[in-house]
Design brief:
Blueprint (H helix, E strand, L loop, with lengths): L18 H8 L4 E2 L1 E7 L2 E7 L2 E6 L2 E8 L7 H5 L1 E6 L5 H7 L7 H5 L4 E3 L5 E3 L4 E13 L2 E13 L4 E6 L2 E6 L1
Antiparallel strand pairs: 1-11, 2-3, 2-6, 4-5, 5-10, 6-9, 7-8, 9-10, 11-12
Length: about 180
């Protein structure tokens, strides 16, 4: 019979691995690619993200992580809503544009695709695999990132044939 441990170890008692070693290991973790968007009183913003996942289905809630070093990422918090646009295989170039490759202004980035709105007013990418229109229901900061929690208030789906994934520091297409 096993013995129950009553000892507790604080996370600060354990040495952390280096950021480089962590990033290298995480590069083997395949992730869907999304463009996170917002438009509201604080302004308009879109950025490519891969750190996004389902948090709950009742109520439907998504979690997304954003780097704090980009000061304009606070717009997602200030506007209080956002849309997570899950990209199809045909969106690799658009993903690069919203990742900041090409040094385009936000206005010029959004001009590269067709966008509509659902309930919150955040830009919804036409042709995305799925777009999750969310109200911000909570957020906090951890180390280098903001962690946002979004209650899904509307969804738009598409019948795309491929998903866009990021793995081993590169894009890959997955047939659906």
């Amino acid at each position: 019979m096993g013995k129950k441990s009553t000892d507790s170890v604080l996370i600060t008692d354990l040495p952390a691995v280096s950021p480089e070693r962590y990033r290298d290991a995480m590069s083997h973790f395949a992730g869907a690619v999304h463009i996170l968007t917002t438009r509201g009183g604080a302004g308009v913003r879109g950025t490519t993200v891969s750190a996004c996942c389902s948090l709950s289905d009742n109520p439907p809630t998504l979690l997304v992580c954003l780097m704090k070093q980009h000061g304009s990422n606070r717009l997602f918090i200030e506007n209080g809503h956002f849309c997570i646009n899950t990209l199809g295989g045909q969106h690799q170039k658009l993903s690069d544009i919203f990742a900041g490759r090409g040094d385009l202004t936000q206005e010029k980035r959004f001009a590269k695709a067709d966008w509509k709105e659902l309930k919150t007013g955040s830009p919804v990418l036409q042709g995305a695999l799925a777009s999750f229109d969310c109200r911000l229901v909570g957020w906090h900061e951890h180390a280098t990132h903001y962690i946002l929690y979004g209650r899904v208030v509307d969804i738009q789906r598409n019948n795309a044939k491929e998903a866009l994934l990021y793995l081993n520091r590169g894009y890959h297409r997955l047939a659906l």
